[in-house]
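Can anyone check this?
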Amino acid sequence: MKADDLSGATVGGRFECTELLGEGSMGAVYRANDLLTGDVVAVKVMHGFVQKSASFRERFQQEAMALKRLADPGCVRLIESGVDEHTGKLFMAVEFAPGEDLLALRGSLSVPESIEVALRIGEALVAAHSAGILHRDLKPENIKLVRSERGLGVKVLDFGLAKVIDIDPDEDITTTSRRRHLTKAGEILGTPQYMAPELCEAKGDPTPATDLYALGLVLFEMIEGHPAFDGRSPLEILSKQISEPPPALKTDVPADVRNLVAWTLQKDPNDRPQTAEQVVEILERLHHKAATPATPGPAQLSVESPPVRPERAKIWAAALVGIIVLLMLMAWGMR
């Protein structure tokens, strides 16, 4: 056992750590018994050397703040956070989320199952955004799949890069400017395979459309079995996120699903859906359609292809005019 391994120790006077589940650059996560309730929980403890950084301490505390705001079955629930009196380390205890790692299931889920999982993730984003929280690190590794008699559910984990937005009850979180800034200008944080272009370039503030880009990437990966953008280095992947068009889903995927994914993966956040509610509404209808036997008659749902921006439309129009003029000149010369 490592010298700093807390297995067997009690954290916060309440949580008895029984097993080290994993360790990252910022801290370690333990399975623990809640001595007050008898429940099994997960306890994240910050590394001592990381805790010396004021910015990392505040980021850890902001994750706890984000979880405290959330009360949704699709998001992991905070039980307690604070400073352990014996070690002096910051900790937070959250509900233990059993289930299957979504990363291990990519490519093995059917399209209807992938739609249902994306719907549940979208519902969790609705709850988070309504509470003034942007996740900013949505990826398969941070999602647990929970199966039950009622269908598929999810638990969205790890709000370590979450951005908490201070809002008034009647204020639109997509336009508010009163935000807590923990990310410095030009600082890039996240996992390249799931970062929206605006995060890759560290330009401007993230919005709900930033999380929806990641949701589109997760849905793509569930269906295709591999990331939409990948490469030999983080820099190569970031470059692709910024400049390369999103790859198309395989042709046997329903057009409505392909169009929805393409819409969420637009480079400009203004060209994507602007709210998680928009995406959830579409996913609900797609889920219902997938679960309902096909019947003759007109389609009940049509997700249009992503709109072409005005400047792009002008380019295409100019090209079309040029082709027409060229054809006319060729016809005149053949007289």
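Reply from J.R.: I decoded it. The first helix runs from residue 48 to 51.
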